[in-house]
Amino acid sequence: MVSAELAHNPYLLITEVRFNGKPPRINSQIEKHRGKPLKDWVSLVPDIFYQEMNGYDFDLYFMGTKSDFNEVQEAFLAAGVSQKEVRLFHKRELEDPEKKDLEITALLQWMQQHPNRKFDAERFQEQTRELFEGKYPYVILHGSAPENPMPSVCAETIAAVQELKDTVLNNTPIVLVIDKENEQQAREDLQILMDRKDVREEQLFFRIDAGLNSAQVKRVISDLGITSPQVIRHYEDDVVQTFLRNYPVTEYIRQSILAFRGVTDQIELVLSEESKERSQVNEDIHLQITALDRNIGFMKQAAEQFLHRDNYDTPQQFWNLYQELEEKIQKWKNRRTKVVGEEEAEIAAQDYERSLQKEIGRFGSAMAEAVQSAGREIEERFAQVYEWQGHDVTFRPSKPLLGESPPIVMPSITQELLDLKEISYTEPKNDFLGKLRKSGDKSSAPVRVVTYYYGFWRTKAAECLLPRAEDLVKECTEMLKSYYDGLSEGYHVHLEQMITEKTAERERIASQLSLEEQKHQEDRDWLTAVQEQLLQIERG
Questions:
Q1: Count of domains in the chain?
Q2: What pTM was estimated for this model as a whole?
């Protein structure tokens, strides 16, 4: 199956793309946008992938936040591309900004509760005070302060746009309040804002007084260059919240990561120099600790893959089987147009129903085999992930129950097919039999003709059977998802147990070091703990 991948991390501003497993061409449009938030260029994604894939009809696997995935879906729909043309799958889900915000707060609290001699907490606090203690700015132009201010937001009321002359407005939401008294002034203010390099359309919002013609005001705003005016009723409107989440909050997370990385990189350098000086002392113990650190590191990486595993998608084989069934339904007598006569039609309808019974039976059997095959693929994939860490590679968790796919009960549709008929009346034929009829029947009554069109039958059969087939696909997917999650959890629990055991062994060996070396090791452990939490913020 032709496929592409789009991975975007808004917190690191990293974008990775694969087209049929290959990186983009040197002159690809994607290169222009790698270091930018996906939301700034998501409208271009359909065309970029169309050019690179030489058309549509491919699977697109997305890795990133839920909100970015939704944006990609909307971009394809806006471009007139159906879900059948580009089949989107959210393969790996990155935590949303709200979760990352909480993780940053938790890391700051952990660093306060676990001081370390290599970390100058006071200096770090002073350098990052504005970053970690400030609130997100929110400008209200020509309006009053909100009655219910949003948490973590500092709303600033501005009477004249000139007050913002020396204010940096990058990613700051700006609400322009428009009423009867300032309608003309609002136009001038909007033009001034749009002329600024640090203001873009996405961060402008409009609150229009109820006494004005809202539609007319929106037209004026559009005439000034705003393609899609964002009109709000309240300062805390959902569209404002979305902007805050997508831009200021995400930017805060990005800047926080850089601040923490500055600390960890500096301490890493210091500890590396100290390690070189102590490498000759208690070399054997250090080698054991290094080996254990390596093992624990591999275990943690494997555990991370099980914990933050890819979302389980419907196996392509399921949809292939569904498509085959649909083709079989539509293929029956597709070289014939109709059958005439009630007796002939009944025979044909019964024949079609028997044919459908066979096909739906084959579909059910094939689905049952596909479920078991998909289950084995899950087992093999997870075994490879687990074995990669290199310790106790023979372990296999107790398998959760993988049931069999339920059978499809096909209702009788013969009568429904026979109800799809057209009745017409024709004059008796002017042949030998017709002449005989005329001679014996002075009325020469029109002949009743009953016609059944095969196309209508095939449509009716599809309407009856395909929803049941689709339900089976969904049921089997949910069954496999439960199996997928259960098996993954089994591996994850075992890995966590091994990590605990190896960590205890490491602590026992480390206790043999001198007091100064133990302090150095404690510094190293502190740094590792911070790096692991930071990695979760970056990529979890």
A1: 3
A2: 0.77
